[in-house]
Write a structure and sequence with these properties.
GO biological process, one term: intra-Golgi vesicle-mediated transport
Distance between the termini: 94 Å
CATH architecture of the largest domain: 2-Layer Sandwich
Low-confidence stretches: none
Subunit structure: Oligomeric complex that consists of at least the alpha, beta, beta', gamma, delta, epsilon and zeta subunits.
Radius of gyration: 35 Å
Organism: Brassica napus (Rape)
CATH class of the largest domain: Alpha Beta
Number of helices: 8
Strand content: 15-25%
Order of helices and strands: EEHHEEHEEEHHHEEHH
Subcellular location: Cytoplasm; Golgi apparatus membrane; Cytoplasmic vesicle, COPI-coated vesicle membrane
Family: Belongs to the adaptor complexes small subunit family.
Helix content: 40-55%
């Protein structure tokens, strides 16, 4: 280290290496301070988010889309006409048949021809409605909203009635099973409710069931229009 005397006072002169050493230490200290400040800002922001977030047990945090476990269409003797299961609660055909039998036994003596009725079975909520010799059922978990399940059932009930032109009975249902299953698919996908408006369901199911080669005279107005559009599109693409 070198020394310099000025006015009788000695001053130490730093070598170039020591100057760089102090410079690096200062730079490191500044970097550490900035990094610490950044961590503190991130921590404060996280606390703010946690304070604003709903608790895990609150309805807002736990709200899930409504789910349907199955849709059943049985006849007046409890025999299956059409059914779709969206839950693994009944893994075998035997389990499904047993459930359908239990549902029918519990509801067959009730009057569900004017309004949707509700019952509980095996930790499930079941809504149902009858017309002629057809018994419609929609099943959801015990935590599901009854009104949503009822809207699903009513949408299916009315859509089938529209597609069968007011002649909803077992014979017509068996003759138009494709339409009924198309209704199922328009309403539910993997247990998630897609649509409950009967007019929309019936229109989509009707269009999806069109045979493009069928005479227009045998199709409904909406089907005929859809067929005409399809023929026009094909002709334009040639």
């Amino acid at each position: 280290m070198w020394h310099l005397s000025i006015g009788g006072r000695r001053f130490a002169l730093l070598t170039t290496n020591k100057i760089w050493c102090y410079h690096n230490k200062l730079e490191s200290a500044i970097y550490n301070a900035l990094e610490k400040a950044q961590r503190e800002r991130e921590r404060d922001l996280l606390f703010q988010v946690l304070e604003l977030s709903p608790p895990i047990s609150s309805p807002l945090a736990m709200e899930l889309p409504p789910k349907v476990k199955n849709i059943l269409l049985l006849d007046s003797e409890g025999k299956r006409i059409a059914a779709k299961y969206y839950s693994g609660d009944w893994p075998t055909n035997t389990a499904k048949e047993a459930f359908e039998k239990a549902v029918f036994s519990k509801t067959q003596k009730t009057n569900a021809r004017t309004e949707v009725e509700v019952t509980a079975l095996e930790n499930n909520i079941i809504v149902y409605k009858f017309v002629q010799d057809l018994h419609f059922f929609v099943t959801g978990g015990e935590e599901e909203n009854e009104l949503i399940l009822a809207s699903v059932l009513q949408g299916l009930f009315d859509a089938v009635n529209l597609l069968l032109r007011g002649n909803a009975d077992k014979r017509e249902a068996l003759d138009n099973l494709d339409l009924i299953f198309l209704c199922f698919d328009e309403i539910i996908d993997g247990g998630i409710v897609l649509e409950t408006d009967a007019n929309v369901i019936a229109e989509k199911a009707g269009i999806n069931s069109i045979d493009p080669n069928a005479p227009l005279s045998e199709q409904t107005i909406s089907q005929a229009l859809a067929t005409a559009r399809e023929h026009l599109t094909r002709s334009l693409m040639k």
